[in-house]
Amino acid sequence: MSVLPDLHLHYVQACQNMSQPENPFIARVLQEADKNDEISTKGITLKLAGNNHLVPVPRVTDDDLGVLVSVLGQSAFVTGLDLAYNVLTDAGAKTMATFLQENSTLRYLNLMFNDIGTSGAELIAGALHRNESLVHLRMTGNKIGNQGGMFFASMLEINSTLEKLDLGDCDVGLKCLIAVAIALTQNKSLKAINLNRPLLSNQQEENTVHIARMLRSNSSLVELHLGKHGMKNFGVERLCEALYKNSTLRYLDLSCNNITCDGAKFLGDLLKKNQTLEILDLNANRIEDVGAIYLSEILLTWNNSLRALSIVSNNVTGKGLVALAHTVQFNLQLSHIYIWGNKFDQETCVEFSDLIETGRLPPGCTDVAPYKVDGEVFLAELSHGLAKHRYWAPRCAAVAPGAANASLEIVPVSEY
């Protein structure tokens, strides 16, 4: 029988030894972990995110982290650490980097939306040159800048363990994107990367050209996020040309770009031959009816691999939406579709209402729900979508990891 770790007791003792006041939030989470009967067999993720509570909690500081890692260094049961939305700075990053160099059990680390800068990024990326256990790292929202991103690009040339890396909203620049693309031509372990919202000063799409070149040779990447890149139809065409030769990428996120109906046609032509892509996110582009109808025709007659499509806020009217509804009715592989933010007419409302009420489109697989007023059908918005849990996830364990979530469990690397 395994001996339980007694994390809370060790934490209290460490606070006394280091003359550091206890953080009641950390203390409570450790007490809950001690009560978990499966901690010694399955491990546990300590959920210390500063935004996941209905009541305010004292956010984790650099000093709090110093005490916490001294406790975790003695416990092999903790395999995940969620420190999102706290107030960790570069000093905390230094503490975490030292911990990563010494720890051999932590598989998941979430540092999103703290105050870590370039020097902190350098320390954490440097620690991953040696760390051989961490599989999933989220740096989302830390303003590490272009130079900080370059350190992670260099890390990808050395590290062969990391499978998911999130550098979205980190203010990285063109040089970082190019360096990451070059690193991924050789890296064989990374399965998913988020490069959303870089800071780009030109409109020449040089970054997209380099990413496309990488996709021609990369055989491990499964999930790629390129949202808010200012991508136009030229960039989409370059990506599609590369994906004709790529047989591993299953999730492509092109949300919040400048893609029009011509770009949708490039994607449609790709889907004629590519039977690997399973999720396509075109949220907040402008494919309009022409693009929506073209995609619907391809998905109806040529493609049987795509499982999820998002065309949220694409200026599509009833004509294009009805075409997509007909496609969903007959293409049984297409299980998830997201359409909110477009221009619904009565026929659209009736068609999607029928899909939902007959069970063809379960409520958890779309972002609309039908209702009636004076006998007329309307659609209301549901809080579902491909990015539902990208920035926030409920703390309770009742929500399945793949429920209306970004990956639909395509990439089997979660927080656990």
CATH topology: Leucine-rich repeat, LRR (right-handed beta-alpha superhelix)
**What ranges have pLDDT less than 50 throughout 5 or more consecutive residues?**
410-416
Looking at the overall shape, the CATH architecture is Alpha-Beta Horseshoe
CATH superfamily: Ribonuclease Inhibitor
Termini separation comes to 23 Å
Rg over CA atoms, rounded to whole Å, is 23 Å
Order of helices and strands: HHHEHEHEHEHEHEHEHEHEHEHEHEE
Helix content: 25-40%
Largest sheet: 11 strands, parallel
Number of domains: 1
Note the total helix count: 14
Q: Given the C-alpha coordinates, what overall shape results?
A: globular
Largest beta sheet: strand ordering: 1-2-3-4-5-6-7-8-9-10-11
Q: How many strand segments?
A: 13
Beta content? 5-15%
CATH class category:
Alpha Beta
The pLDDT mean sits at 91
Q: Determine the structural class based on helices, strands and strand pairing.
A: alpha/beta
Pfam families: LRR_6 (PF13516)
Organism: Erpornis zantholeuca
Keywords: Repeat
Protein name: LRC34 protein
